[in-house]
Design goal:
The protein is α+β, with helices and mostly antiparallel strands. The protein is built from 12 helices and 7 strands. The strands form 2 sheets. The protein has a 5-stranded mixed β-sheet, with helices on both faces. A two-stranded antiparallel ribbon has the order 6-7. The relative contact order is 0.12. The N terminus is likely disordered.
Length: 261
């Protein structure tokens, strides 16, 4: 699955074990000879934190599922602390962008879901934070971020090719913060025109975990974006993390949300 050449029957079975574990269905630990493979598969699909949380929620020992889990509690604490540092920085970024008339920032994709749909944001690993801004005020947004110490990464400047810019900065703790500022939801034009910033902003909802000015895409828009992102950028990848994002959004949709979707 994903970057694999193709799953074997055993891999398919282990994927089924992970899915059942993450969604709270009845499932038993794999044979002792397959526990390491289950752990490695969970890491490859970036759902090892979710699976570990599910195992502990069941009141079971992590080693019974993953074999030698090493210093898993210490790793999880480190992930939670790092996420808290990044969350404080993200709130500063959102507050700055929201204070500029016309920018109307919307946190979307993985970062937004981490704070709106996951029990704890550190359970949803992510490399960067995606923020959608008004196309007419994209330059203002980038200038404001540069004033906060962010540097723009090298990429093509062609506006017909790229509809986003990546920026990063390293804070006093040595933690790197990476942002993807979008003025369209995707680079592919056929995908980008499906939903505009104005449409998403008009239905956006509060994201209180990132402060009083933070907003995220409404669930019906978030589901469409998650599906389009998986198709447009990841060639219909079967990575469980992206599929689990879709699962979490979908299970919370009301009848009205489904109609809107």
């Amino acid at each position: 699955t994903g970057d694999y050449s193709g799953p074997s029957v055993t891999d398919t079975q282990l994927l089924g074990v992970l899915c059942a574990l993450m969604t709270g269905r009845a499932v038993t630990p794999p044979h002792s000879t397959r526990r390491g493979a289950l752990r490695d598969l969970a890491r490859a699909h970036r759902v090892d934190r979710l699976a570990a949380r599910a195992i502990r929620t069941r009141g079971e020992d992590l080693d019974a599922w993953f074999g030698d889990s090493g210093d898993a509690p210490g790793t999880e604490r480190a992930s939670a602390v790092l996420d808290a540092v990044r969350g404080r920085e993200l709130q500063r970024v959102v507050d700055t962008l929201a204070s500029i008339d016309g920018v109307a920032p919307i946190v979307f994709k993985g970062a937004a879901l981490a704070y709106s749909h996951y029990r704890d944001p550190w359970l949803r690993p992510r490399i960067d934070t995606d923020i959608l801004v008004s196309p007419s005020f994209a330059r203002s947004a980038l200038t404001a971020l540069e004033s906060l110490g962010y540097e723009r990464m090298i990429s093509t400047s062609g506006t017909l090719v790229m509809s986003q810019a990546s920026l990063s900065r390293t804070d006093d703790f040595g933690v790197e913060h990476t942002l993807d500022v979008h003025w369209r939801i995707a680079n592919w034009h056929v995908i980008a025109v499906v939903l505009s910033h104005d449409e998403i902003a008009g239905r956006a909802v509060p994201l209180p975990a990132l402060g009083p000015r933070a907003r995220a895409a409404a669930d019906s828009d978030a589901l469409l974006i998650a599906c389009l992102h998986r198709a447009a950028h990841h060639w219909d990848s079967n990575e469980l993390l992206w599929i689990y994002d879709i699962h979490l959004i979908a299970e919370r949709l009301s009848y009205t949300d489904w109609r809107a979707f």
